[in-house]
Design goal:
The complex is a heterodimer of chains A (513) and B (407). Chain A has four domains: 5-165 and 339-374, ATPase, nucleotide binding domain (Nucleotidyltransferase, domain 5, 2-Layer Sandwich); 172-206 and 289-330, ATPase, nucleotide binding domain (Nucleotidyltransferase, domain 5, 2-Layer Sandwich), CATH 3.30.420.40; 209-281, Alpha-Beta Complex (Actin, Chain A, domain 4); 380-493, Substrate Binding Domain Of DNAk, Chain A, domain 1 (Sandwich), CATH 2.60.34.10. Helix content of chain A is 27%, strand content 32%. Chain A is built from twelve helices and 27 strands. In chain A, helix 2 (101-113) packs across helix 3 (132-144) and helix 4 (154-163) packs across helix 10 (343-355). Chain B has 407 residues and is α+β, with helices and mostly antiparallel strands. Chain B is 43% helix and 20% strand. The chains are: A alpha+beta (513), B alpha+beta (407). The interface between A and B is large, with 37 and 42 residues.
Chain lengths: 513, 407
């Protein structure tokens, strides 16, 4: 029987959980050190790859061969160049040599799946606002790691875990505050028993603990320079400074001041950093957090008192400033009680159980019998149409929304448009996607752009029916139909990753430690 | 007047009413003259127009509309259906019984098929004695949808006709006056704030020249008038000649070549009076021409992949002084911001660029900036790396700005 596995593939830390025989999620540890969370750092040697703390250690002497924060590159067409020690753009001819983000991620996934045996299928978590390209790359990574994978949004997985905690008191409309190492998501959901209905999700893909560490390093550099007259050499490329910054951040979560001896070009120097200095240095990020919280509430016409509880997820939520901000905006303190580093992986394991009901034993089936998850569409899906713009007094092409964001899945929506002019030859069947309600086509991603040929006698005003359907697996099916001639054009879209495994595997031939 | 058909309606005569009286009331022999007059006054088709905010159920919340109301007899004398038409004419320079150029509609639902001339047509089931005993709300027309031929105070003639079902109206003129059974009209004094469509046609050449002149001055505002900027202006001028016949196009090209040379020289010396240029442009350009000019200026500003501080300042000022919708302008500018390599905001720390004004309180400022953040944060997933990079920069600029208002 295949194991029921959930994986939190994080920016700075990753984790794996398995559904135990009784249907409860159980964290799996690295057999080498018994750690339940693994650093998402990868060292690429000549014939082997190392994942975790050892990779971080390797970075001190071999920075160019060590990759951090691969998750933030999943949406980009880049490769990690060991020669340059950085991500470089990949051109169309793929002339740049190096490792793709999906290849690096596959190394992390392979390491995690080896914490137990017989793992063939898994649910992998991604940030709620992860781009399609990033989702595709995650699926590619899973293929390379020989895993059959389903994706779930991180905060959704976390709320599933919260709702399934034995004796859980989580009920009503909740806000899931997920601040990890590299991304920040907020989800609002209705929880009733073990039933979870997602209402909305918002997020920032470039906000998390690693950014806060960078600000601490900037503070260290400034103080070192003031004391010694000369700054540190390329401090943001020095992984040992990140380790120190992380330590300082952890100390400042419980104390008002942290001190470290810093080795620099002018010798060692003791550097003190106060909590208020640190909090001031990250105030731009804090402002982003406030804006996203306000946006999540306002987009659903909610006030703080409409939210029963705020649930914390992600290691960065341990910072006192986060607690302060949440308490101020939500007018009550967030709920503490679960391990914020493990909630996402545990929720993913529960979701894996829901996706594989046929493989569950009777105890697992019973445990998950009342669990239900209803998700929403995280984007606006639209098409391009011509309208008369009253203000500019001219016809302009706009993005017209077909499926609004936060529509419950599965859904199917039909809108009717009309042919613009007599004798028009075709209809532009564009499928667009955007996070915001964008009218301007400049600000949307065009997922597909095809043509539906019209009949020769097309007349202005002839109806064109456009139907978009979106299912729970993320599959989008679009039909553009000329009602007069009954001609149809159908488009199916689903993040699936690349098909050519051989191409994906290029250069990737080593043991994983 | 070219393209405009001016027609005279033969008002349905007294005999029609009389004959209806006879059929509807069994002959008029027993009525006194005073009774006849009273009945005629009661049944005479009448029209009135006034400015109103429609009731909520009409779906035009808080929109200033012209309420068109009819009263009296209009049912077709012999058929069981009546086709009605409502047309609007600008009669400012004409007598009340004449028909001036039609007004246009800014929305197709109030326009004739295949053109923009205002028209409302519908067919009603009627009998020969169908009438409105009291004022009936025929329609609410949003004022902003009415496009008059000229700017300023205009006498608009609203004309309601009840006709045979095969009657047609083209460019506001009935194809066969015999098919009109009843009609009524009224004059409404309307103020058109924008240049009218006939003026736009008349001023077109001058507005094109002014647009080129403004764009040239904008290009020179940062002290460098480079070839890329000049090419955008040249291409724009060239596009204006594409639809013309050969002779006219060649004449126009020569004119533009001379104009571009002259304005280039003046713009480089920075001696042109921008306020004079703007004032003349404002006086002559229609709304759509204003937006086209702004679009050209933004294209010129971004042609060297850099939005310089002076350029942004210049275009901001022009947008404010020509009275276009600043939200629409901001959206147009966002497109440029998203695509340039380098950006150098005019006002530090860019508050005006986001539509923040000094009279706003902190809560308003926070709200505006959050909306801007939401917009740009959504763009950090864009497939175009340039747009994605710009979006990340904008998100940081906005958060930096907003924190000073966050307590």
């Amino acid at each position: 029987m295949s194991k029921i596995i959930g994986i939190d593939l994080g920016t700075t830390f990753s984790a794996i959980a398995e559904l135990d025989d009784l249907g409860n999620p159980e964290m799996l540890s690295d057999p080498e050190n018994n750690n339940r969370i693994t650093r998402s750092a990868v060292y690429i040697g000549r014939d082997k790859a190392i994942v975790g703390d050892k990779a971080v250690d390797a970075a001190v002497t071999n920075r160019n061969s060590t990759v951090f924060e691969v998750k933030s590159q999943m949406e980009n067409n880049v490769v990690w160049s060991k020669k340059d020690g950085e991500w470089i753009e990949q051109d169309a001819k793929k002339t740049s040599k190096g490792y793709t983000p999906s290849q690096i991620s596959s190394i992390i996934l392979s390491k995690l799946k080896d914490y137990t045996s017989g793992v063939k299928k898994a649910v992998v978590t991604v940030p709620a606002m992860f781009a399609d390209a990033a989702r595709d790359a995650t699926l590619d990574a899973a293929k390379l790691a020989k895993l059959d994978v389903e994706l779930i949004n991180e905060p959704t997985a976390a709320v599933l875990h919260y709702a399934n905690l034995p004796g859980s008191s989580i009920n009503g409309r909740v806000l899931i505050f997920d601040l990890g190492g590299g991304t920040f998501d907020i989800t609002i959901a209705n929880v009733k028993g073990k039933k979870v209905d997602v209402i909305t999700s918002v997020g920032d893909k470039h906000l998390g603990g690693r950014r806060f560490d960078e600000e601490i390093i900037n503070l260290i550099d400034k103080k070192y320079k003031k004391a010694k007259g000369k700054g540190l050499v390329k401090p943001l490329e020095d992984e040992s400074l990140f380790t120190i910054a992380e330590r300082i951040k952890k100390i400042l979560s419980t104390k008002d001041k942290a001190s470290e001896i810093i080795e620099g070009p002018k010798g060692p120097q003791k550097i003190d950093i106060s909590r208020s200095e640190f909090e001031n240095s990250i105030d731009t990020y804090i402002e982003k957090i406030k804006m996203l919280m306000e946006e999540a509430l306002e987009s659903k016409d909610l006030k703080a008192n409409n939210i029963s509880q705020t649930l914390l997820v992600g290691g960065s939520t341990r910072m006192p400033i986060i607690n302060k901000v949440i308490t101020k905006i939500m007018k009550k303190a967030p709920v503490k009680g679960v391990n914020v580093d493990e909630a996402v992986a545990c929720g993913a394991a529960i979701y894996a159980g829901l996706q594989n009901k046929g493989n569950l034993n009777s105890a697992q089936k019973k445990s998950l019998s009342n669990v239900e998850l209803n998700d929403v569409c995280n984007y606006y899906l639209g098409t391009l149409a011509i309208i008369y713009d009253k203000e500019r007094d001219m016809g302009i092409q706009i993005n017209d929304i077909v499926i609004p964001r936060d529509t419950k899945l599965p859904c199917s929506i039909t809108k009717t448009y009309t042919v613009v002019s007599d004798g028009q030859k075709g209809i532009d069947c564009s499928v667009t996607q955007s996070e915001g309600e964008e009218k301007d086509k400049e600000f949307v991603n065009i997922l597909s752009n095809e043509i539906l040929d019209l009949s020769k006698n097309a007349k202005a005003g002839d109806p064109i029916e456009v139907t978009y359907s979106y299912d729970n697996s993320g599959k989008i099916h679009c039909i553009f139909e000329d009602k007069k001639s009954k001609k149809k054009h159908e488009i199916s879209l689903k993040p699936a990753g690349a098909k050519d495994l051989k191409e994906l595997k290029e250069n990737l031939d080593f043991d994983i430690e | 007047m070219e393209g405009i058909v001016i027609w005279i309606v033969i008002i349905a005569g007294w005999w029609v009413i009389k004959s209806i009286f006879s059929s509807a009331f069994g002959g008029g022999g027993s009525l006194s003259n005073a009774d006849r007059q009273e009945l005629y006054d009661k049944l005479k088709l009448q029209l009135k127009v006034s400015e109103e905010i429609p009731p909520k159920e009409r779906g035009l919340p808080d929109q200033k509309c012209l309420a068109v109301k009819v009263k009296g007899l209009f049912g077709h004398p012999t058929e069981n259906k009546t086709k009605i038409f409502l047309t609007i004419h600008d009669n400012t320079e004409l007598g009340d019984d004449e028909f001036g150029p039609p007004v246009l509609s800014a929305h197709p639902s109030f326009a004739e098929k295949n053109n923009r001339v205002f028209s409302l047509t519908t067919v009603w089931e009627t009998s020969s004695d169908t009438y409105f005993p009291d004022w009936y709300n025929l329609i609410y027309i949003p004022k902003e949808l009415i496009l008059a031929p000229y700017k300023g105070r205009r006498n608009l003639k609203f004309n309601f006709t009840a006709c045979d079902t095969d009657a047609e109206v083209h460019h506001s003129a009935h194809d066969d006056l015999e098919k009109i059974k009843y009609s009524a009209s009224t004059i409404y004094k309307f103020t058109s704030k924008e240049i009218g469509y006939l003026e736009e046609f008349k001023n077109r050449d001058k507005v094109e020249d002014l647009t080129i002149n403004l764009a040239m001055n904008m290009a020179a505002s940062d002290g460098h008038l480079d070839q890329k900027e000049l090419n955008v202006i040249k291409d724009w001028a060239k596009s204006l000649t594409l639809e013309l016949d050969e002779d006219k196009a060649s004449e126009k090209k020569k004119h533009f070549a001379k104009l571009i040379k002259e304005t280039y020289k003046i713009a480089q010396t920075k001696k042109a009076s921008i306020s004079k240029l703007v004032s003349e442009f404002n006086d002559k350009a229609s709304k759509s021409q204003k937006y086209l000019a702004i679009e050209l200026m933004l294209n010129v500003a971004s042609s060297d992949s850099k939005l310089a501080k002076e350029e942004e300042q210049f275009v901001n000022k022009i947008a404010k002084s020509i009275g276009i919708d600043l939200q629409t302008f901001k959206e147009m500018k966002n497109k440029v911001i998203a695509n340039v390599d380098k950006i150098d905001f005019a006002e530090k720390p860019s508050e005006a660029s986001f539509g923040i004004t000094d009279d706003m309180d902190d809560a308003e400022k926070r709200k505006i900036l959050r909306k801007e953040y939401t917009k740009w944060n959504g763009q950090t997933n864009h497939k175009d790396p340039k747009k994605k990079k710009r979006a990340k920069e904008m998100v940081k600029i906005i958060a930096d700005l907003r924190k000073q208002y966050s307590h």
